[in-house]
Amino acid sequence: MTESKSPDAAPSGEDDRNPGADVSFPYDRVTVEQFRRRFPRARWSDDRKAWFVPGSTASRRIGRWFAEREAEADAHADAKGRDAFAFDPIDSPYLEVGKAGFRIRTPYSKTVVDELREVPFSRWDGDLRLWHVPFRSYEDLRRRWPDIEAAARRNEPEERRRRAEERKGTEQDLRSRLRSAERKRHRYPLPAGDLPPIGRPVATSYGIVVFTDVTGELVDPQSVSDFYPGVNEDDLWGYWRLPTFEELVRTWPAKTPPLQGARWWLPMIEELRPARRAARSRDARKRARAP
After folding, report:
1. Which helix H or strand E contains 11, and what residues bound it?
2. Basic and acidic residues composition bias: which ranges (predicted)?
């Protein structure tokens, strides 16, 4: 922001001796007029390229002014989003309108979660088991809604049961059952010359896990090659468990991506964030079941 000299301009160095606070913002005539009405004693400083607001409580008053402006902008954006919804509404059993925005409740779907996380200002309500999206984010929500609703319908219990019935007895069903049984063994093939640290969260094709033991038992590639591509006869079985939320919080994210073909690697922040959310949910379910 630039401002020409005016009768209000502060002499160079004078404000250094007086209590007050500097404030600067992108130049806009209306904003400047509103600022001057709110702070009539403010003076422009050419040296600092900022306004100086005198007074020992200046910082607090400036912060309150910025907060009020943000609230006004949010209210305007919410009104605009509410009007957009009224003009082109989303008609869906998964969405209802509340006082402050939209409430979205769907069957669990990773696609739904991923899509809603990309909607600005969306948030998950763990108590009500639904998503809140403010009116101001309607355009983003509207653009993503076809994928959200399609994923929600695919994950309705009846639809999942129907697909399961269709798969029964097929080769796909058999392979799925075998993969599920293998995962329940909580084992994972590891290169003998590159073993992960024991007791520390690391990332794998299963997600982030904590290896608890590597017994030295050799892997039989012929029996598990369908589940673990690239496995070889020198690999060892490592046994794992899911990490706790506290372990994941203490895990420092890696700054470089894993090497091509790595079996395990130190997790990056993009992997840690969803793992932490999942661990927090697991902990909450355990607490709810506890007597």
Report:
1. none
2. 153-181
> Roughly how many angstroms between the first and final C-alpha of the chain, as a whole number?
62
Q: Where are the alpha helices (H) located in the chain, listed in sequence order? A: 29-38, 58-87, 110-117, 138-154, 157-167, 171-184, 221-224, 245-250, 269-289
The answer to whether residues 40 and 55 touch, using CB atoms and an 8 Å cutoff, is no
Assign 213 to helix, strand or coil: strand
Polymer length in residues for the chain? 291
Strand partners, 239: 187, 213
pLDDT reading at 12 higher than 60:
no
Q: Please tell me what DSSP assigns to residue 168.
A: T
pLDDT 10s digits, 182-239 = 888 999 999 989 999 999 999 998 899 999 999 889 998 888 887 888 888 889 999 9
Residue located via tokens 């060892």: 236
- Asked whether 91 and 54 are in contact (CB, 8 A), the reply is no
- Alpha-carbon distance 221 to 207, whole Å? 22
Residue 246, CB half-sphere, CA atoms under 13 Å: how many? Answer: 2
What whole-number distance in Å separates Cα of residue 144 and Cα of residue 112?
9
How far apart (Å, rounded) are the C-alpha atoms in residues 15 and 38?
Answer: 19
Element (H, E) at 9: none
Phi then psi dihedrals of residue 104, to 5 deg: -120, 120
For helices 157-167 and 171-184, the axis angle rounded to 10 degrees is 110
| Nearest-angstrom CA–CA distance, 59 and 76 | 26
Separation CA 13–CA 6 (nearest Å): 16
Number of CB atoms found within 10 A of residue 212's CB: 12
